[in-house]
Amino acid sequence: MKTPLRRYLLVAFALVFTLYTQPIVYASAQQITLTSVYSQIYVDRATTLYLPVNVTNTGSATKVSFKVDAPTGWETSLSYEGYAIRELNLQAGQSLKLSLKVSVPANASRGNNTVTLVAFDGQGATTSLRFTIEYAAPPTPPPGVTLTTVYPTLSGPSGTSFEFTVSVKNTGGEDDVFTLIANAPQGWTVTFRPQFETSQITSLSLKAGESKTIAVTVNPPPRTESGIYNLTVTAASAKTQDSVRLAVEITGTYSLSLTTVDGRLNADAVAGEEAYLTLVAKNTGSVQLRDISISSNHPSGWSVTFEPSLIPSLAPDASQQISVKIKPSSTTLPGDYMVTFSAYGGRVSTSVDIRVTVSSPPGLTALGLAVVAAVIVMLALIFLRLGRR
How many other CB atoms sit within 10 Å of the CB of residue 78? Predict the structure, then answer.
């Protein structure tokens, strides 16, 4: 009985000794390592950094989770092969390349700022990798403003309203209020309003670095002569100012009127005799007219002459009288006839219709009455003779 018992005791002792002496394998914080070629970075403006990070498991297979500690207002994210991650499964001896994205805001604190990447293994042990980012914000820009426009020159006829689009940018480092000033030719009006709005403004408030677009409406006086007119728009504050030069090209309007000197559109004439009429041609546009010819459309056999028949030039708002002689043919029957007078000046033309009332000559009228009377007397004598028979 002693021999089997002794064997059992020996076997149990061997098993206990074997289990006691075998090592226990697990992933500790020291078995997860984080490394990077960067440790301290210098930036002088708001920017986004992409920091390479190597994570290595020197122990057994385990799940690793991550956390990033950064200053308030900073944005961070961790990615692997373009995908944002929070956890990874790492096999024993496996190493992966990660990317830590860090966005440095413009209002970051000057000096050293710390961003820490923390890794947790499956048992809660941690290891970390610290980055020091030194932020040296650029100096505050001096006060400044710029005015720009895409279309500095606009063209059109007189009486047109011209609208320019001007961009105003505060290039300074502080908020500012700018007064809008226009320097235009005498008699011209210039108004300002925010783009796509109807309310007129005289000043513009801009934050540092902010830009706004305004509409500049320019109205020339009526009948402004053709030509190119320059004007400037200025944005000025107590600290700075800038101007943009604009130009308006007045192409002019072509317009001509033709009527009688007294405004009447009818005239009297005697068949075979001359009648006189005075027309007035007026340049109602804003461009000087040249070589204006006068013509007429009248009944066949009539004679119509003009003095002058050609007007060499006619300035804006100027007029020229034209003497007209109308002579209906001697065979024209009494009645009303239409005569059309036309004025043609190259790029402009106009016409006026005059109703001419034609009557017979006085001698012809008396002769006609005598003939009628003679016919009546002859008819009366014939009736008397026939009555005696």
Answer: 20
